[in-house]
Amino acid sequence: RHTKRANPEDIQVLEHPALASMREMLTVTESPHHDTYIPDQGSSPILLRGVPRAVQLQMSQPDTFKTASPDAIHAATQVCRPNVKSNIVAVSYPDNLYEELTTNGYTLEVIVTGLRILFSAYMAVRKESLVEVTQRYEKALAQESDSAASATQSPGPQKKRMRGSGKGVQACSRPTFDDVQIVVSTDNPGSSADSRAVTERRSKVLTALLHLIAANMTGIDTLLFHSDMQSLDLAIAAFDQICTSKTPLVSLLVRIHDIAAHWN
């Protein structure tokens, strides 16, 4: 799915104000959480679990947010009541990946590393989402058991009402991955002003394609893209052309490397 929205990083912080506070905590030199990532040791997708989402922002044009007036932003903002929670993955690409990209272009190493990072990130989101659904199931099951125990000790009329209350949690099976519906709002390397990633067409198409492949491998239900529509169309066309259930992963990555040069 494609949406014309503002810079995804700006949107994430606006919708999840706690992210700004967390950044301040991590950048304080004396903080015990300061050294959470060492660039020389490679990429490390970090999952931020249950970040409160205070508002939802929807603007009609992708660049409107940067120049919009306070009144326009206020009109496009919807307060979430009650607050919902998001699982946010912060993906750090290793320095040597950028060096390889700058020196030798889109090598097979760059493509493989990109897919590995996204696969790890999406798998973390999927597993964490199942954990949350399972926790809600167990909480509801415990509450139902407590209610049933209370009803057993109550007079006859209350007990009859419990018997006729319909299908409860105990009649439902324990949640599995099939019970979890996941929507991921994606971002592109190079969308922020200080990013070192290449922002040409080839980069956008390759990133979108790797997102599609990683999501397909990990069982993500819906991807929300913020790239331009032309890049997304090229990525979807490539995905439909080369990604089949019978294609070995190694052959798929080599094929992507072969056709990436044509995404200009």
Query: What is the tally of beta strands?
Result: 4
Helix content: 40-55%
What is the H/E order? Answer: HHEHHEHHHEHEHH
**Rg result:** 23 Å
Number of helices: 10
Largest beta-sheet details: 2 strands, antiparallel
| First-to-last CA distance | 22 Å
Query: Which structural class is indicated by helix and strand composition?
Result: alpha+beta
Whole-number mean pLDDT: 74
Domains, number: 1
Tell me the β content.
Answer: 5-15%
Q: Give the neighbour order of strands across the main sheet.
A: 1-2
In the predicted model, the low-confidence regions spanning at least 5 consecutive residues are 1-5, 158-166, 189-199
Shape: globular
Could you walk me through the main structural features you see in this protein, from its secondary elements to its overall organization?
With 264 residues, the protein is α+β, with helices and mostly antiparallel strands. It has helices at 8-15, 18-27, 64-67, 70-75, 95-104, 108-152, 156-163, 201-218, 229-242, 249-259; strands at 46-57, 77-90, 183-185, 222-224. The chain has one domain (8-20, 40-152, 171-262). It is built from 10 helices and 4 strands, in the order H-H-E-H-H-E-H-H-H-E-H-E-H-H. Mean pLDDT is 74; it is low at 1-5, 158-166 and 189-199.
